[in-house]
Design goal:
Length: 398
C-alpha cells in the first residue's frame, strides 16, 4: 500500500491540494491534484488523478465561506476517495519562515506562535497558511504536520545579499532580505542535473513568473540571490504587486496623500502591478489578448522589469550559462518568454521559435551562447519529499 502524504497550499480564496503516495522502497507519486477555488463566493472543487484524468469538477454550496470550511469539505471528499488509507503526515507551504526557520520543521504550538509573528511580512499568504494548519490539527490531532517555507532555500545567501542598509539595532529585529518562491526554485535545482546537465553546475537564472513573480540566481544549484527581499513586494512587476519601488513613494502616500497604513498595505499587495497599469486585469492571458494601450503598457513594463532583473542577477553571478522559465506565465506564454529573451539578447541569447512554441524543455537555438529552458515547477512534490524525510528522521530517532 505505501504511505500517503497530503500537501496543502492555502490561500485567501483558494485551497490547493495534492495527495502523493510512496510505495515501499520507491519515490513519491502523484495520486490526486486539485483545488477548491472561489472560497467565500462561488466555491468549486476540481481534481485530477496522477494521469490527468478528471476526478471531480463540482460546484459547492454556500457553506464553504472560509478556509476552515474548505478544509472540512476537502477532508470529506478525500475520505470518499481513499477511505482509511494511511496518512503519514500533512505538509504545508508556509510562505515566511523568518530568519530562524532555514529548513522544514515539525509543527508545534511554539512553532505556530513564532510563525504568527511573521504575518505582517506576508499578509497575503501567511494567515491562510497557518489557519489551514490549525484546522487540520483540530480534525486530525494525531497526524503530524510539517511546515515547508518559501524562504528556506535562500538561507544560503551571503551576509551582503541578505543585508538591508539600516542601523544594526533595527536589523536585529529581523530586517533582512529573505527571498521567496524557494520551494519552486529548490525543485528546479533538483531536476537540473537530469534535464539540463550542461548548466546544472553552472550559473543559472530561474524566472518563476506567475501572479507572484520573482527570479533567483543559482550557482551550482545553490541560491545566491533573489529579486524578492524582506517581503514579497520587491523585484519584478506582479499581478497586483508593484515590484521594486522607491521607498520615497510610500512616504509620499502617507505624508502627502494622507493614506492610512491599511490603505497603503491594500494598495501595495492588491491594487498595483499589472492590474493597476492596465486598468483591466491582473491575468496575463487577458492582457495578451487585449488591444487596449494600457494593457500593452502593462506588458511592456513587465518585460522591461524582467530584463532589468536578469541583467542584475547576471552581474551577481559574473555571467550566465542558462535561463530557466517556470510557473504559470513562464511555462505557458511563448510570447512573454520571447519578449524577455529579446530584451536580454545582449547576453548572447537566441531562441529557437519552433522550440519556444513547442514543449521544450530547451528553447534556445544551437547558436545561443546562453541556453534557455522551460521546466514545469512542482512545489507539491518538494513539500512531500520534505514531509516524508522529516517524519522518517523522527521515526528513526524514536
Amino acid at each position: 500500500m505505501g504511505e500517503h502524504a497530503l500537501v496543502i497550499n492555502a490561500g485567501s480564496s483558494s485551497l490547493k491540494f495534492s495527495v502523493l503516495r510512496r510505495p515501499p522502497g520507491q519515490s513519491w507519486r502523484l495520486e490526486v491534484k486539485g483545488q477548491i477555488e472561489g472560497i467565500g463566493t462561488s466555491p468549486v472543487l476540481s481534481a485530477k488523478d496522477g494521469n490527468g484524468e478528471t476526478l471531480a469538477k463540482t460546484s459547492l454550496d454556500g457553506s464553504v465561506k472560509d478556509g476552515g470550511a474548505a478544509i472540512d469539505t476537502l477532508a470529506s471528499w478525500l475520505r470518499s476517495k481513499f477511505g482509511s488509507a494511511y496518512l503519514c503526515g500533512v505538509g504545508h507551504r508556509v510562505v515566511h519562515g523568518g530568519a530562524k526557520y532555514d529548513r522544514p520543521v515539525l509543527v508545534t504550538r511554539d512553532v505556530l506562535v513564532e510563525l504568527y509573528e511573521l504575518i505582517p511580512l506576508a499578509p497575503l499568504h501567511q494567515p491562510y497558511n497557518l489557519a489551514a494548519i490549525e484546522r487540520i490539527a483540530q480534525r486530525m490531532p494525531d497526524v503530524p504536520q510539517v511546515a515547508c517555507f518559501d524562504t528556506s532555500f535562500h538561507s544560503s545567501h551571503s551576509a551582503v545579499a541578505k543585508l538591508t542598509p539600516f542601523p544594526k539595532d533595527l536589523r536585529k529585529s529581523g530586517l533582512q532580505r529573505y527571498g521567496f518562491h524557494g520551494l519552486s526554485y529548490e525543485y528546479i535545482a533538483s531536476v537540473l542535473p537530469e534535464i539540463a546537465p550542461e548548466i546544472a553546475k553552472g550559473r543559472v537564472i530561474v524566472a518563476h513568473l506567475g501572479s507572484g513573480a520573482s527570479m533567483c540566481a543559482l550557482k551550482a544549484g545553490v541560491s545566491v540571490d533573489s529579486t524578492l527581499g524582506f517581503t514579497a513586494l520587491d523585484g519584478l512587476c506582479m499581478g497586483t504587486r508593484p515590484g521594486a519601488l522607491d521607498p520615497g513613494v510610500v512616504l509620499y502616500l502617507f505624508q502627502n496623500l494622507g493614506l492610512s497604513a491599511k490603505e497603503v498595505e491594500s494598495l501595495l499587495y492588491k491594487k498595483s502591478g499589472l492590474l493597476a497599469i492596465s486598468g483591466i486585469s491582473n491575468d496575463m492571458r487577458e492582457l495578451l489578448t487585449s488591444d487596449k494601450p494600457d494593457a500593452r503598457l502593462a506588458l511592456d513594463y513587465f518585460v522591461y522589469r524582467a530584463a532589468k532583473e536578469i541583467g542584475s542577477l547576471a552581474a551577481v553571478l559574473g555571467g550566465v550559462d542558462g535561463i530557466v522559465f517556470t510557473a504559470g506565465i513562464g511555462e505557458n506564454s511563448p510570447e512573454i518568454r520571447n519578449r524577455i529573451c529579446e530584451a536580454s539578447s545582449w547576453l548572447g541569447l537566441e531562441l529557437d521559435p519552433e522550440a519556444n512554441t513547442g514543449k521544450g524543455p530547451r528553447i534556445s537555438s544551437s547558436r545561443s551562447k546562453v541556453s534557455v529552458w522551460v521546466i514545469p515547477t512542482n512545489e507539491e512534490l518538494m513539500i512531500a519529499r520534505h514531509t516524508g524525510a522529516l517524519l522518517g528522521l523522527l521515526q528513526t530517532a524514536a
